Amino acid sequence: MSDRNVDMPQTAPQASGNVLFRATLTPYRSLTPRGFAALMMVVVFTCLGSALLFWSMGAWPIAAFFGLDILAIQFAFRLNYRSARACEIVEMTQEHLTVRRIAPNGRAEAFDFNPYWARLEVERVPDWGIIRMALASHGRRLAIGGFLNPDDRESFATALTQALASVRHA
Question: What integer is the mean pLDDT of 97-102?
Fold first, then answer.
């Protein structure tokens, strides 16, 4: 499991107000800010070289389109990094299982379940792993971890299932 996507420090105290399980789920981004800067330098130099080539051949209007390419790529990456600000925080005590979703714009919503009655539903595909997860209780379903990769979903599902079982058997 990648430390970037799922942060699951678990505590084991059994008192009613103590946190029994906590996980912060975040989208994975393979390109660091330093990597993004290096990629943009390669794109800028490639576009600049191509623009100069077309300019020297007399096709100067085409050179402006390479500048548009640079702006479009930078805009797409900014949107991508903005969406990476989203996260889901799953926290469980003896009485409450709370899922807080924080959108990229900072807007947060919270969903509360009773951990004794809540169950984690997973949908698996052979040779791929878990493709969907949802918390279910009393007719309500809440999809969680949709942005995780299958390995991170698997480790999160295992940890949360164990934590839910510990509440039921306590």
Answer: 95
Cα three-residue angle 95-98-170, rounded to 5 degrees = 30
pTM for the whole thing?
0.71
> Does residue 1 sit within a domain?
no
* Mean pLDDT rounded to a whole number for the chain: 87
Q: Per-residue confidence at 2, pLDDT binned at 50, 70, 90?
A: very low
Which 3-state string (H, E, C) describes the chain?
Answer: CCCCCEECCCCCCCCCCCCCEEEEECCCCCCCHHHHHHHHHHHHHHHHHHHHHHHHCCCHHHHHHHHHHHHHHHHHHHHHHHHCCCEEEEEECCCCEEEEEECCCCCEEEEEECCCCCEEEEEEECCCEEEEEEEEECCEEEECCCCCCHHHHHHHHHHHHHHHHHHHCC
Q: How many CA atoms lie within 13 A of 89 on its CB side?
A: 9
Number of domains in the chain: 2
pLDDT digits (tens, 9 = 90+) for 106-123: 899 999 999 999 999 999
Domain that includes residue 12, residue range: 6-28+87-168
Q: 92 and 79, same structural domain?
A: no
Residue in the block written with tokens 């924080």: 102
